[in-house]
Amino acid sequence: MLSNRKNIRLPHYDYSQNGMYFITICTKYKRHLFGAIRNSAMHLNSLGNLIALQLAAVSDYYNNIQIVHSIIMPNHIHFILSIETNNNAIRLGRIINRFKGMATSKAKMSLWQRGYFEHVIRDEKELLAIMEYIENNPARWELRHL
Fold it and tell me: Which domains are assigned to the chain?
């Protein structure tokens, strides 16, 4: 039986246009694969370090694409992606799928749940709030998992 998946994309929005996007990608079955939170800080294991390297490599694959801020958590990652291209030829979904595929290939195991969550960052106030959310994510996690 196929599940009815809710479309979270903005209707009529061009996801190849320049801008900043807040991305969340969860592990398959929400497994804790990338490390542990201790003393309000994320401590990456070897797989978490591999994910960090793959995330950093996103900018190597695409010109004018930058990871502005990120956090790798035990069972998900958050990052802010900036697209600044001259021709709007690269779609957000393609960037995310390449990252997920490369990380899966390097890890030699299935890592990710289907899809991802994204939010179009509309202004500087929102950007700063999301950056603060990313920074405080390990402390919030620790409080919820005591």
Answer: 19-144 (3.30.70.1290)
